[in-house]
């Protein structure tokens, strides 16, 4: 095999290594993973809004939202933003006021966190949409007075 055929593969490996090295490190004393955030994010990704809301609520109690990349699986990182994802899950459940409150207190929505401009823009857009949207009933079986928990 000629060395010119190996070059694209080597370049890809170098880019992956350099990309991983550029991720911001978790603060001292904070593990790289958070089990509630991990389960909540995967539930959110699978459209399981109740589970996502419960797990994100548990995650935000344990660590303050900081937007730093947190390991979800062995190769998948997402910004640690449980309050942001809680707000989005509550919006999907039809809990408009609770969703607005969570999104407004989210660090992702309140300030510019390096590398998180897309999430901030999405958050601000969702806040505006929820603010002007007419009230709608919550999803069946959801009690918004209990912050999106099942009845």
* Poorly predicted tracts of residues: 6-23
Instruction: Report the top-level CATH class.
Output: Mainly Alpha
Mean pLDDT: 77
Structural domains: how many: 1
Distance between the termini: 64 Å
Named at the architecture level, the CATH assignment is Alpha Horseshoe
What is the fold named in CATH at topology level?
Serine Threonine Protein Phosphatase 5, Tetratricopeptide repeat
| Rg over C-alpha atoms, rounded to the nearest angstrom | 18 Å
Quantity of strands, as a count: 4
Helix proportion range: 55-70%
User: What is the beta-strand fraction?
Assistant: 5-15%
List the strand order in the largest sheet. 1-2
The SSE order reads HHHEEHHHHEE
Q: How many separate helices?
A: 7
Q: What would you call the structural class?
A: mainly alpha
Shape: globular
Main sheet summary: 2 strands, antiparallel
């Amino acid at each position: 095999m000629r060395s010119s055929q190996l070059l694209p593969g080597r370049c890809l490996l170098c880019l992956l290594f350099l990309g991983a090295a550029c991720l911001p490190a978790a603060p001292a004393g904070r593990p790289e993973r958070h089990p509630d955030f991990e389960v909540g994010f995967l539930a959110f990704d699978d459209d399981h809004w109740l589970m996502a809301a419960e797990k994100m609520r548990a995650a935000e109690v344990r660590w303050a939202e900081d937007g730093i990349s947190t390991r979800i699986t062995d190769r998948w990182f997402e910004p640690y933003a449980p309050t942001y994802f809680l707000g989005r899950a509550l919006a999907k459940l039809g809990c408009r006021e609770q969703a607005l409150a969570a999104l407004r207190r989210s660090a992702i929505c309140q300030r510019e966190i390096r590398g998180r401009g897309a999430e901030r823009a999405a958050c601000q857009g969702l806040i505006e949409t929820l603010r002007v949207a007419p009230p709608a009933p919550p999803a069946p079986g959801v009690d918004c007075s209990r912050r999106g928990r099942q009845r």
